[in-house]
Amino acid sequence: MTKEQKQEVIELLKGKFSQYSNFYITDTESLSVDQVSKLRRHCFNKQVEMKVAKNTLIKKALEQIDAEKYSGVYAALNNVTALLFSENPKDPAVILTSFRADEKSERPVLKAAFINGDIYVGDDQLKSLTKIKTKNELIGEVIGLLQSPAKRVIAALLEKANKEGGAEAAPATAAAAE
Question: I need a labelling partner for 136 at 20 to 30 A (CA). Which of 20, 119, 160, 161 fits?
Answer without folding.
Answer: 119
